[in-house]
């Protein structure tokens, strides 16, 4: 005997409320002029239940705007406490042709180094995985594009990956030299000459660590993970900054990075950290939209209180509406 339709409806919505269900994305093919697939573009992102919907949208936007989508290899870093097989199954179901790996990141490797920041979401251990990519990814991956999960690309990621890093830099990212750099560190930091001297011989500018092109070979040679950890250890003893994983990156790299055109990080669309006000685009062209800040487009869309620019994220949302059956 078949169960009545109403019962099926109730059951399927119960399933949807415990695990998110995603639609399958179309398959995207390489253009004829693509180089052989062994010249890969490597992309690293974190993956967890909270930001899964954002990650799925980001992946879709990347393959959709790529001329050579089959040359992209995704490296997903997930917390060792999350269900990797479920995440793997979710990615595979929506992107059956995606070339990807999942790597567990041990929360305990960084938990002892995290001091609380002004925004608790920034204290999640997985947020610090970007400092450990050189050790997590296989040694034959020499260069990676690191991306946050709250962004979409509207341009070919190969152009971002091809950013020249040069001989002197380890990573490339869009720099913002108009931002008041003083703000990112505490008066304790600036009033201590041995600390503030860190920036004395460089033109340090703010950069956002949500979009970076990293030369992993140079990172490994210079053991930059240890240099970042040393600042985090100092932060535990004396409060030298307020935010989470960003300031140690600034301490080690600000003023020493290769530039990336600002079109590759139209950041801040999540609004400010305190009131979550809507933000507008910065002037100039757009290749990447980044909902950094407190508000996330999927949360605001669900609450039916979206910011105007959230409409640009919505077309990449793969979440199945709750009323759709799993066919
Ligand atoms: C992980 O998810 C799978 C479903 O894909 C489930 O069968 C399994 O029990 C889950 N494991 C844990 C530890 O929750
Ligand atoms: C930068 O911010 C600090 C304190 O946050 C302030 O004292 C300083 O005047 C600011 N500098 C500029 C150039 O706005």
TrEMBL record:
Protein name per its UniProtKB record: Hexosyltransferase
Pathway: Glycan metabolism; pectin biosynthesis
UniProt keyword Aminoacyl-tRNA synthetase present: no
Domain of life of the source: Eukaryota
Subcellular compartments: Endomembrane system
Signal peptide: 1-19
Top-level class of the enzyme under EC nomenclature: transferase
GO cellular component terms, semicolon-separated: Golgi apparatus
EC number: 2.4.1.-
Keyword Manganese carried by entry: no
Keywords: Glycoprotein, Glycosyltransferase, Membrane, Signal, Signal-anchor, Transferase, Transmembrane, Transmembrane helix
GO molecular function: glycosyltransferase activity
Pfam family, one: Glyco_transf_8
Family: Belongs to the glycosyltransferase 8 family.
Primary residence: membrane
Species: Mikania micrantha (bitter vine)
Membrane topology of this protein: Single-pass type II membrane protein
InterPro entries: Glyco_trans_8, Glycosyltrans_8_dom-fam, Nucleotide-diphossugar_trans
